[in-house]
Amino acid sequence: MVFVLFQLIGGVILSFGWIPQIIQIFRTKSVKDLNKKTFLLLFAGIGLMEVYAVSLALEGVGYAFLITNSMSLVLIVIILTLIFKYRHSAQ
User: Fold this and answer.
1) Of 18, 30, 77, 88, which has fewest CB within 10 angstroms of its CB?
2) 2-40 pLDDT, tens per residue?
3) 82-85: which pairs have CB atoms within 8 A and are 24 or more residues apart?
4) Dist CA 47 CA 9 (whole Å)
5) Mean predicted confidence (pLDDT) in 79-87
């Protein structure tokens, strides 16, 4: 139980780590210093881990992993959306 709590707290911290980047993008309307390939690779990696998290949840374990991984996936999608939006609007 304690390890599930550690995973949940750690996963929330990692997920919320993307929020300052999202806020900065909204404030500056600039993504010129962000590498699109990096975020696409992060999306692919987190997406694959999401498949694993779903399989664990279907077995009745790993709900904390599923929740925090899903949060990260949503936040990466937001960043990618902003990258595509602001890269195209700047051209």
Assistant:
1) 88
2) 988 999 999 999 999 999 999 999 999 999 999 999 999
3) 82/22, 82/25, 82/26, 82/31, 83/31, 83/34, 83/36, 83/39, 84/36
4) 20
5) 94
CA atoms within a 13 Å half-sphere pointing along the CA-CB vector of 87: 12
Place of tokens 């881990």: 49
Q: What does the DSSP 8-state code read for residue 1?
A: -
CA distances from 7 to 18, 69, 91 (A): 17, 10, 42
Contact (CB, 8 A) for 9 and 42: no
